[in-house]
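name: query_chain
kind: protein
chains: 1
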Amino acid sequence: MSERVPVAAIAALGVTQIIGYGTLYYSFSILAPDMARHFAWSNEWIFGALSAALLIGGLTAPWLGALFDRIGAGRVMTIGSAAAAAALVACAMAPGKTSFVIALIAVEVAANLVQYGAAFALLVQLRPQVAQRSITYLTLIAGFASTIFWPITAALHAQLSWQEVYLVFAALNLLVCLPLHAWLSRGARKSRQTPSAAPGRVEGMLSPDLRVIGFALMVTGFSLQSLVSSAVLVHMVPLLSGLGLGATAAVVGTLFGPSQVLSRLINMVFGRNLPPLHLAMIGAALIPGGVVILLLAAPSIPGAMAFAVVFGMGNGLLSIVTGTLPLTLFGSDGYGKLQGRMMSARLIASAVAPFVLALSMTWIGIMWSLAITAGLGAVAVLIFCIIGSLVPDKRRLG
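structure:
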């Protein structure tokens, strides 16, 4: 019984992750131009506000990660749904720039309470022995977030102001996500209180004397990937438009979500026995690989489509390994705290990415900006290879 994945919990989390990422992250790039006009800001400065919010949100992540272990990730996610709804309402009602930035910071702090880091911790707390499979299945479902919410946001924004769109999104977090997270929290508490259902534990592969350097390397690798991913994703549609794709940019961008799902599906079917470390290396190579394809092929529409597919597949694997690799290397004990520390480092490293890329594209052009971005992504591949050298051969091969 303990070896079965918690199907109902994964399905419920899949719904909340789609809404959480769709409303708190993917919608921003669609609404940002209207936000900038409303507050008489340039696009660069509205993305600068997002970067500041991501940075401050990242500083709170270690404390939030410890909270996952202390009171349970399900309870934290329930609180987070209410906080996300309140923060979105505060953004919509903000009378000026300062209040808007404060509300945007609250959105990013709330996002840390309800997105992947919290969801992965909940799955580990429910059934650590099958958590790697559970995380893979969850990311398979949640990969539809951008595909669903980019067109939903655009369609809503065609009829409503950005403030009204945020009010609709607040209602989704309050009326859909909060009840689901509350149900999951009750289930997790019952599991811990029932001795026969008490979950086991997973041992880490890294020896204790290598865990500090291993954690530093892992976080650096994930941070570089997150930097590249967040920079390109936030600017996906305007970036493709700027390369000459025009109206087809939005269509090409919609390939990103299905490509994430495709990579997770391929991994689930054919890569079931592939160690998370090897998966991390593959994902790390695909992300800058996609950017290089775009550099070489632009403004070709087939080339842009290939970029969206390869880049999306890399991001799809990144989402999996940020949950499974820490569990494999360091074990299940204190996993929530570990996720919090990792989230903090990743968010702080990548917080400036949307703002810097916006400025970079203005100052040195899109092509040079993408070349630098691809170079940073390539360093992550080297880092995961170094981590591989720290793991004993037998354990590395699973």
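note: The radius of gyration is 20 Å.
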